[in-house]
Amino acid sequence: MSRPAVHLVDGSLYVFRAWHSMPDEFHDADGHPVNAVHGFTRFLCELLERVKPEHLAVAFDASLTTSFRNAIYPAYKANRELPPPDLERQFVLCREVTQALGVPVLIDHTYEADDLIGSALWSLRGHGFRSVIVSADKDFGQLLGEDDEQWDYARNLRWGPAGVLERLGVHPYQVADYLALCGDAVDNIPGVPGIGAKTAAALLAHFGNLDALLERVDEVPFLRLRGAASCATRLREHAEAARLYRRLTRIALDAPVAAQADELRRQHGEAAAIDALCERLRFGPLTRTRLKALAPGS
């Protein structure tokens, strides 16, 4: 672990968690709900105090309906309700708090937060950095290189590539193929009918990747696999769909993000912005003290 670390935070996940977990008793100076902002701010303060990262970024989703995945598969995430206006407003405020603390924000209307994190990881790996992805989302397993980690902050669990194999039964380079086969209900990706997680993992353990599996599908009936013959039939029928699903499950590595490490270096906090946010969001004494300590001079 001698290489410097960049912490890449799945901001949208922690905003949603705060929205669902914080009591509905926090309101800003105009009477609007700000429970998610209060919860997210506490999380971010704790992360900065605990890790003191020199390089980091917080990635946010711009919307549930505008990514390139929606263009190639309109049903993508169509099972999710759009955030209510009160939460949309709080997402904007969470970004303001993040920027006021001098933390770089990643957001794009074409690429999702996962893609921005993946692209930043890929770019900074070439500059000698290892990455710590702060998220519980299983999709990020596909990004983990030898020295990278994923950190489920709420449960304080960390794992590297070996942890992906332990959790999903596949190696990091197989995660996108695995999700294309067995589906991902959270993102409304159906997968190949009848192929569950264990079958998908077994198929990839034998064939290595989705392309090899589909090219050698005639071998599937001879595997020691329950329902192997019917599995082969379904793979033939849904081969093109599986390839499409992989375009959805594979995290993009070419999103427009910082090309140099200095662009993800934490800057000095904006004291005036912190003071204004404290008044506007009616933060309590403890949160104000933490924010001011993280933004000297406020």
From TrEMBL:
The keyword Nuclease applies. GO terms for biological process: DNA replication, Okazaki fragment processing. InterPro entries: 5-3_exonucl_a-hlix_arch_N, 5-3_exonuclease, 5-3_exonuclease_C_sf, DNA_polI_H3TH, FEN, HhH2, PIN-like_dom_sf. It holds the Pfam family 5_3_exonuc. Residues 2-267 form the 5'-3' exonuclease domain. Coiled coil: none annotated. Keywords: DNA-binding, Hydrolase, Nuclease. It comes from the Bacteria. Gene3D superfamilies: 5' to 3' exonuclease, C-terminal subdomain (1.10.150.20), 5'-nuclease (3.40.50.1010). SUPFAM superfamilies: 5' to 3' exonuclease, C-terminal subdomain, PIN domain-like. GO terms for molecular function: 5'-3' exonuclease activity; 5'-flap endonuclease activity; DNA binding. The keyword DNA-binding applies. Signal peptide: none annotated. This is Exodeoxyribonuclease IX.
